[in-house]
Automatic annotation (TrEMBL):
<keyword id="KW-0479">Metal-binding</keyword>
<protein>
    <recommendedName>
        <fullName>SWIM-type domain-containing protein</fullName>
    </recommendedName>
</protein>
<feature type="domain" description="SWIM-type">
    <location>
        <begin position="246"/>
        <end position="278"/>
    </location>
</feature>
<keyword id="KW-0863">Zinc-finger</keyword>
<keyword id="KW-0862">Zinc</keyword>
<dbReference type="InterPro" id="IPR006564">
    <property type="entry name" value="Znf_PMZ"/>
</dbReference>
<dbReference type="Pfam" id="PF10551">
    <property type="entry name" value="MULE"/>
</dbReference>
<dbReference type="InterPro" id="IPR007527">
    <property type="entry name" value="Znf_SWIM"/>
</dbReference>
<dbReference type="Pfam" id="PF04434">
    <property type="entry name" value="SWIM"/>
</dbReference>
<dbReference type="GO" id="GO:0008270">
    <property type="term" value="F:zinc ion binding"/>
</dbReference>
<dbReference type="InterPro" id="IPR018289">
    <property type="entry name" value="MULE_transposase_dom"/>
</dbReference>
């Protein structure tokens, strides 16, 4: 079974598509991605596909027009990159460094970690260096991943469908749909509670924004350009050590720490600069955290699935 999932603005998993195939090959992945593009994506822009480095997937993506920049991109699961890396070099220290390099937001820190890998093993450095950095590193990603580094979320669906894969095809289809609908109902209830609490954003966005807002109190700002709304921000840890400087450009919606770009929520440095320029940091949180936009698609899909399950019961009765 091939599965496509998406994560909403509350970091909740939403199944998008399932397909039952005889084997995992290039033709099957090509067909699946074509159907996904035709029936689910349907021309939407700013889409990021994250997968492992299965040869069939890579070839299907490369030869198809559906996940090509600038409107859509393909990224690799960092866990699979690290696993393959470790299979070649069998060194847990290097594997940990590989993960650190791939998950690091800041370019300077990424370069530092890669230099450490080079000191430890030149061959390991060369192996990673030949992989397109946009495909596997957060620091070169350009904000497409929204901090989703792995395909773990897709594989969580296996837990929802535990035991179903061994059933006959008709039963597999029915139980997959039933469990998916149940999952959507649970997520819809959570969304309703947030709306009833008059939340502007999802729980995830609220917690992230408030956490960074509290950290911003300890920062110091030096303005650069009022027209570009840019500034440098000096941070200090509570113990007095670890002073760092970051550059924030509000007009470009970016900070050198890399977190604003990945999460779509102004980081602590950006919030501090917003305060210095009398800008509402809340007004520049990405709209995919908006509760009205997050909850409505869940209800729409749930209604659609409910109509289908009724039809399926009639067919198989």
């Amino acid at each position: 079974m091939l599965i496509a999932t998406v994560m909403d603005g509350n970091q909740q998993l939403l199944p998008l598509a399932f397909a039952i195939i005889d084997e995992e090959t290039y033709p099957s992945w090509k067909w699946f991605l074509q159907q996904l593009s035709r029936h689910v994506i349907r021309g939407r822009r700013r889409m990021c596909l994250i997968s492992d480095r299965h040869g069939g997937i890579i070839k299907a993506v490369r030869e198809g027009p559906d996940f090509v920049s600038p409107h859509r991109v393909h990224r690799y699961c960092l866990r699979h990159v690290c696993s393959k890396f470790n299979s070649n070099f069998k060194n847990m220290v290097l594997k940990d460094l590989c993960w650190q390099a791939g998950s690091e937001y800041q370019l300077r820190e990424f370069n530092r970690i890669m230099e450490e890998i080079k000191k430890q093993h030149v061959g390991a450095f060369a192996y990673l260096d030949q992989i397109n950095k946009e495909k596997w590193t957060a620091s070169h990603d350009g904000g497409w991943r929204c901090d989703i580094l792995t395909t773990n979320m897709s594989e969580c669906i296996n837990g929802v469908l535990k035991g179903a894969r061994r059933l006959p095809v008709s039963a597999l289809v029915e139980i997959t749909l039933e469990r998916t609908i149940h999952y959507f109902r649970v997520q819809a209830i959570k969304g309703h509670k947030m709306l009833q609490n008059n939340q502007l954003w999802t729980d995830f966005a609220c917690k992230m924004f408030i956490s960074w807002q509290q950290k911003a109190v300890e920062h110091t700002v030096t303005k650069y350009s009022h027209s570009q709304q840019s500034a440098s921000v000096v941070t200090r840890r509570q113990n007095g050590h670890g002073i760092n400087t970051h550059v924030v450009k509000i007009a470009n919606r970016e900070c050198s720490c890399g977190k604003w770009n990945q999460f779509g929520i102004p980081c602590s440095h950006a919030q501090k600069v917003c305060g210095a320029y009398n800008i509402s940091a809340a007004s520049i949180v990405k709209d995919y955290y908006d509760m009205r936009l997050t909850t409505t698609p869940i209800l729409s899909i749930l209604n659609l699935c409910s109509r289908k399950i009724i039809g399926m019961i009639q067919i198989f009765s």
